[in-house]
Design goal:
The structure holds 2 protein chains of 2 kinds.
Chain A: H1 2-26, E1 31-37, H2 38-42, H3 45-57, E2 60-66, H4 68-76, E3 82-85, H5 88-96, E4 100-116, H6 129-139, E5 143-145, H7 151-162, H8 167-170, E6 175-177, H9 182-192, E7 195-199, H10 200-205, E8 212-216, E9 223-231, H11 241-252, H12 254-262, E10 264-265, E11 268-269, E12 272-273
Helix pairs in contact in A: 11-12
Chain B: H1 2-9, H2 14-17, H3 33-44, H4 47-80, H5 86-96, H6 101-112, H7 127-163, H8 172-178, H9 180-196, H10 199-205, H11 215-224, H12 228-262
Helix pairs in contact in B: 3-12, 4-7, 4-8, 4-9, 5-7, 6-7, 6-10, 7-9, 7-10, 9-12, 11-12
The chains are: A alpha/beta, B mainly alpha.
Chain lengths: 280, 263
């Protein structure tokens, strides 16, 4: 009798678990998967705009946040319907290889060089990013690199190149590649009194600033453009073409552009819509 | 306060930074804030938070259930059966108890990816993929420990069971039933392994807000956005949940043992 009782209890528990799991998977039948960058997620932008899009169209956008390189790979494999990233040359290649239908500009923000308030390299207040990077390298001040093939990582590497610092030769204990997202890089920089290149959005919404502050900003070369691409249904037949396109149209249309402009933290705008700007 | 700063640092790559001096005082955390965050989460009954807790529990419990249904009979079979290569399989399964979650996650990711062999299922970045990943992590624990428990029990009651005509496979239900209290602990170990891991569910689930975000991936995310108090608050909540589930299991097995003794 006890055996029977326990068995019944077990079956009841099993059924509860199964129905719970069922309920989880049944909700939100109309959805697309978007692979995007850690900056759009960590800055809270998606939390602001996606509910507006859903209210408008009824489409759920499931966002997988990765570095730009990884996000594009997710699109290449067909594991996402839409890719929303920030590394123009990689996006153009993605479309040229036939993985994407078309790249559309969405918005921009800028990168900022973050460093400790004590400013060991003495670059604070400069408007010349290449000069600042050269000084950091010469003084061997600690610098945290994302090292994760993200858009920010790509931008950092190209800035070192512009500053004609050969990282392969001058890499030492001062240059620390952590292979993690933007937030983790800021945490690391804070703990180690290091400089780090960050997108302004993540920096503004970052809560654990401690002794970190903006060291260099406002250089033209710190411009950071975001683009959106529909994964090519010709390569991956299961891509949700209509719903994915609806998201892209909304994002680059007046409503989406306004939603992006409206997202502010502490009164500061994080992203600047520029879908209509030619050549962006 | 030092303790909390230290926990954050665990997230970083130690191989590269062991010699670095870490500036502990940079974390504006006081000892009470994580507990305050945990209390706010639990008492606030925020629907988003409840959804995350619900998903964590349903994914992990389903995974443990699947691993139990497959692993208990398999473990018992492995305990009783004699065939060439048995020792090698036992060693292999024991070793798989140490399967790194991130490796399991990666393999399942490659299998379930649209470009992988099981891509047509469309399971990647869904709770189903997370259940598969956790089942695979829990299964070796269930098989290996069940095998050991049943083998010991069989050694003890072999003659008795044989005299009752319960030989070989026919003895399995009896043995499993007699070992039920030990096996409950096995399942709790499996539950612990699944509920605590972040590597596999992050890769195959994608940490999608409101859909595949569970407690451990939330903790990783909040750490990366620098909200350390909330991250630790979530951690405390997860520990409290695990404690509650273990307490319930312990109580149930006590009652079960008393009823078994009474009959």
């Amino acid at each position: 009798m006890n055996a029977q009782f326990t068995r019944r209890l077990f079956i009841a528990a099993a059924l509860t678990v199964c129905t719970a799991a069922q309920a989880q998977t049944a909700q939100g039948t109309r959805f697309i998967v978007a692979s995007s960058t850690t900056s759009t997620q960590d800055s809270g932008l998606f939390g602001h705009i996606l509910p507006l899009f859903k209210a408008n169209t009824g489409i759920d956008v499931r966002v997988v946040s990765q570095g730009t390189g990884q996000a594009l790979d997710t699109g290449r494999r067909g594991d996402a319907d839409v890719v929303f990233v920030h590394a123009r040359s990689q996006e153009v290649t993605f479309v040229a290889q036939g993985f994407g239908v078309e790249r559309k500009p969405v918005m921009y923000n800028d990168f900022v060089l973050i460093g400790p308030k004590s400013d060991p390299a003495g670059v604070k207040g400069s408007k010349d990013i290449t000069n600042a990077l050269q000084t950091i390298q010469q003084k061997q001040s600690a610098f945290v690199s994302r090292g994760d093939r993200s858009g920010t990582h790509a931008a950092e590497l190209s800035l070192w190149k512009t500053a004609s610092v050969d990282l392969e030769k001058s890499k030492g204990s001062w240059y620390r590649e952590i292979g993690q997202g933007m937030g983790a890089a800021l945490n690391t920089a804070g703990a180690m009194n290091a400089y780090v290149l960050a997108d302004r959005g993540t920096w503004l919404s970052f809560k654990n600033r401690g002794e970190l502050d903006i060291a260099v900003e406002g250089d033209q070369r710190l411009f950071n453009q975001y683009g959106v691409i529909l994964v090519n249904p010709a390569k991956h037949a299961h891509v949700k073409k209509a719903d994915g396109q609806a998201f892209i149209d909304w994002l680059t249309g007046p409503e989406g552009q306004k939603a992006i402009a409206d997202y502010k933290i502490g009164g500061q705008q994080l992203f600047f819509p520029n879908a209509t700007q030619p050549g962006a | 306060m030092r303790l909390y700063a230290k926990i954050t640092i665990l997230n970083f790559d130690h191989r590269k930074h062991t010699s670095d001096v870490v500036n502990w005082n940079l974390y504006n955390l006081d000892a009470a804030s994580p507990f305050r965050a945990a209390m706010q989460l639990i008492l606030g009954l925020d629907p988003q938070f409840l959804q995350i807790v619900g998903l964590s529990l349903s994914v992990t419990l389903t995974a443990v259930l699947i691993a139990a249904v497959i692993g208990l009979p398999l473990g018992a079979l492995l305990a009783l059966a004699r065939f060439p290569g048995r020792s090698a399989i036992i060693v292999l399964i024991n070793a798989l108890m140490g399967l790194p979650p991130v490796v399991a996650g990666l393999v399942i990711f490659l299998l379930l990816s649209r470009s992988g062999p099981l891509g047509a299922l469309g399971w990647l970045f869904t709770p189903k993929a997370m259940i598969v990943a956790q089942s695979i992590l829990v299964l070796p624990i269930v098989i290996a420990l069940t095998r050991q428990i049943i083998e010991d029990l069989w050694a003890e009651y072999c003659e008795h069971l044989t005299s009752l005509g319960q030989t070989g496979v026919r003895a399995i239900p009896t043995l499993l039933w007699d070992a039920r209290f030990s096996l409950a602990t096995v399942l709790l170990a499996g539950f612990g392994r699944a509920s605590a891991e972040v590597g596999a569910v992050l890769i195959v689930g994608g940490n999608i807000a409101g859909y595949t975000r569970v407690m451990t991936t939330s903790i990783a995310l909040e750490t990366s956005t620098g909200d350390l108090a909330l991250a630790l608050g979530l951690g405390i909540t997860l520990l409290a949940l695990t404690l509650a589930i273990n307490a319930i299991a312990f109580g149930a097995s006590r009652i079960g043992a008393r009823l078994a003794g009474a009959s």
